[in-house]
Design goal:
alpha+beta, Alpha-Beta Plaits, two-stranded antiparallel sheet, 4 strands, 29% helix
Length: 83
């Protein structure tokens, strides 16, 4: 399982991770107005939240790169056909 850490000092409360996550892993904490992890078990390690975060407040631990390998293979196949 991926461990997700949100740095509350770095989080600017924009909500981009909440809106962007395809697995609804995050929600906004109404009191702190910071993002918080609510469904870590549903994280598929796509890292879309990490990519979109303007303050890079997300840290993902125990990621296995092979989970994203299917994307790399598709891109590689397309590039090989073009070249």
């Amino acid at each position: 399982m991926v461990e997700i850490v949100v740095d509350e000092d770095a989080c600017v409360g924009c909500g981009s991770c909440v809106d962007d996550c395809p697995s609804d892993v995050y929600q906004m904490n109404e009191e702190k107005w910071k993002s918080e992890v609510i469904n870590a078990d549903d994280c598929m390690a796509c890292l879309s939240c990490h990519e979109i975060c303007p303050s890079q407040a997300m840290e993902h631990r125990d990621i296995h790169v092979a989970k994203r390998l299917y994307i790399d293979r598709k891109v590689s196949d397309v590039l090989n056909k073009i070249i």
